[in-house]
């Protein structure tokens, strides 16, 4: 019998070691999936049937006009399943793979609810929580044209940006706040954001928020939201930490799990490259020198900076992205990558969610992730919205056993490629080639950031 979650590689299975193994249950019934996910709750009140088109949904006409201008007529699977119920005011628990359209699945319902409403200073009417600054900004950017069409004022509240500007926006009155949990809690404690009038709260990528240690902040925020409001929780994976939030804060949710969270995307191919420590950097350099863009993941900020410097010295347009860089730096780097001014984005897991780049066909794990969910979300930066893509992981000899376990938990059967820098299979999949070797400098049109420790030129620093 063929592997039920086999990646769509055209070659035969290279080794038995990466096949899926049957998990041991010791005779007990399983309460979750092989990845440790909890059993989805049963909906008591039946949900509404899926929508066949956006036009058939009970939404304000301006939202439908913007959808038409964007060329969107038929909702994605998660949108078709959840929108009829979220528009009706039901709590929703939605699971769908990354890149499947979850933002509009909750965003259209939010904006339809806020249409024509008045927001008081410091008292928003809806809140969307996201685990990273990049994801929060992408949610806000994706919803911006729809929000303008119905007169809904939004603001983004994230760390790494001046808090006084965010407080000023809230004092002026906004309908919708898109926020990371930590910064929103800061503003709540300052009295700049009061949630007693919030009618709808959304948790986007809830599993990552719990994995990143945001559970206390998320719980504190939801406790401030009126209990009779609407709550929606969307994620690509659902584990037992999320189960705590579902059981505590969602009321008889309509549950939709429209495609597998394990990343079995028919247009995505998974590849393993066994390399030695001496070969790893040269293989990574040849892959980064390819035609087209690539995201490369490493575990630490220091490793990211070193790899970006190495690639720049070898003539590759590379830039680092990690939590140690300021938000303006991170935003500029992402803009450069999306424009193609940067072709190799070297990142930590901060880029594993919330980044959408059209036409990105390759993701490389220079350091294999320690968790199968991180692997799935890293890979989810490619093969989005029906496009094809490859995920390549470089594996050292001491990492092979852990990688076998990770692939088993993710229900993925990869193809093993030759690890030599000259291997034809590697070049075929990744477009690897010899770098130019001419050092390059990434220049930004934005002015450089001035250190707080230095006064502007021409002025004397006052003595303290």
Question: In words, what does this structure look like?
Answer:
This protein has 464 residues and is an alpha/beta fold. It has two domains: 61-257, P-loop containing nucleotide triphosphate hydrolases (Rossmann fold), CATH 3.40.50.300; 263-430, P-loop containing nucleotide triphosphate hydrolases (Rossmann fold). The protein has 15 helices and 14 strands. α1 packs across α4 (133-149) and α13 (372-379) crosses α14 (400-410). It is globular, with a radius of gyration of 23 Å. It starts with 60 loop residues before the first helix and ends in a 34-residue tail after the last helix. The model is unreliable at 1-16, 20-35 and 445-464 (pLDDT under 50).
Overall structural class, as computed from helix and strand content, comes to alpha/beta
The best one-word shape is globular
What is the H/E string?
A: HHEHEHEHEHEHHEHEEHEHEHEEHEHEH
Question: How many strands in all?
Answer: 14
First-residue to last-residue Cα separation? 77 Å
**Strand order of the biggest β-sheet:** 3-4-2-5-6-1-7
CATH superfamily of the largest domain: P-loop containing nucleotide triphosphate hydrolases
The CATH topology of the largest domain comes to Rossmann fold
CATH class of the largest domain: Alpha Beta
Spans of 5+ residues with little confidence (pLDDT < 50)?
1-16, 20-35, 445-464
Q: Quaternary status of these chains?
A: single chain
- Count of separate DSSP helical elements: 15
Beta fraction:
5-15%
Q: Identify the CATH architecture of the largest domain.
A: 3-Layer(aba) Sandwich
Largest sheet at a glance? 7 strands, parallel
Give the mean pLDDT.
Answer: 83
Radius of gyration: 23 Å
Number of domains: 2
> Percent of residues in helical segments?
25-40%
Keywords: ATP-binding, Helicase, Hydrolase, Nucleotide-binding
Biased composition (Low complexity): 1-17
GO cellular component, one term: cytosol
Region (Disordered): 1-38, 431-464
């Amino acid at each position: 019998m063929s592997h039920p979650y086999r990646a769509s590689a055209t070659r035969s299975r290279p080794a038995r070691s990466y096949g899926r193994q049957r998990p041991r249950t010791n005779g007990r019934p399983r309460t979750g999936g092989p990845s440790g996910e909890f059993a989805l709750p049963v909906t008591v009140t039946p949900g509404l049937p899926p929508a066949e088109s956006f036009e058939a949904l009970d939404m304000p006409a301006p939202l439908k006009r913007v959808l038409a201008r964007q060329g969107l007529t038929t909702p994605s699977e998660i949108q078709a399943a959840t929108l009829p119920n979220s528009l009706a005011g039901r709590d929703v628990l939605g699971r769908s793979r990354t890149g499947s359209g979850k933002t509009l699945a909750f965003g259209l319902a939010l904006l339809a609810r806020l249409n024509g409403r008045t927001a008081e200073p410091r008292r928003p009417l809806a809140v969307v929580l996201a685990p990273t600054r990049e994801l929060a900004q992408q949610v806000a950017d994706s919803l911006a044209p729809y929000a303008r069409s119905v007169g809904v004022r939004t603001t983004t509240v994230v760390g790494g940006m001046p808090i006084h500007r965010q407080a000023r926006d809230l004092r002026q009155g906004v309908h919708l706040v898109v926020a990371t949990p930590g910064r929103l809690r800061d503003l709540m404690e300052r009295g700049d954001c009061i949630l007693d009038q919030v009618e709808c709260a959304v948790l986007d990528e809830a599993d990552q928020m719990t994995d990143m240690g945001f559970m206390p902040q998320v719980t504190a925020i939801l406790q401030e939201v009126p209990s009779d409001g609407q709550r929606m929780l969307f994620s690509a994976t659902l584990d037992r930490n999320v189960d705590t939030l579902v059981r505590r804060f969602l009321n008889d949710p309509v549950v939709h799990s429209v495609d597998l969270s394990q990343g079995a995307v028919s247009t995505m191919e998974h590849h393993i490259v066994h390399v030695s420590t001496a070969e790893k950097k040269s293989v990574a350099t040849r892959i980064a020198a390819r035609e087209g863009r690539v995201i490369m993941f490493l575990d630490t900020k220091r490793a990211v900076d070193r790899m970006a410097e190495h690639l720049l010295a070898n003539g590759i347009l590379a830039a680092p992205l990690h939590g140690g860089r300021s938000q303006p730096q991170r935003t500029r780097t992402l803009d450069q990558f999306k424009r193609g001014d940067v072709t190799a984005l070297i990142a930590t897991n901060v880029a594993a969610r919330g980044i959408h780049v059209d036409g990105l066909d390759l993701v490389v794990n220079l350091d294999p992730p320690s968790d199968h969910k991180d692997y799935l979300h890293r890979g989810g930066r490619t093969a989005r919205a029906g496009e094809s893509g490859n995920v390549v992981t470089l594996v050292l000899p001491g990492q092979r056993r852990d990688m076998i376990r990770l692939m088993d938990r993710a229900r993925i059967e990869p193809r093993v490629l030759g690890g030599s820098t000259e291997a034809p299979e590697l070049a075929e999949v990744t477009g690897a080639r010899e770098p130019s070797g001419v050092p390059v400098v990434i220049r930004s049109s934005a002015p450089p950031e001035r250190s707080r420790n230095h006064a502007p030129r021409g002025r004397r620093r006052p003595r303290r």
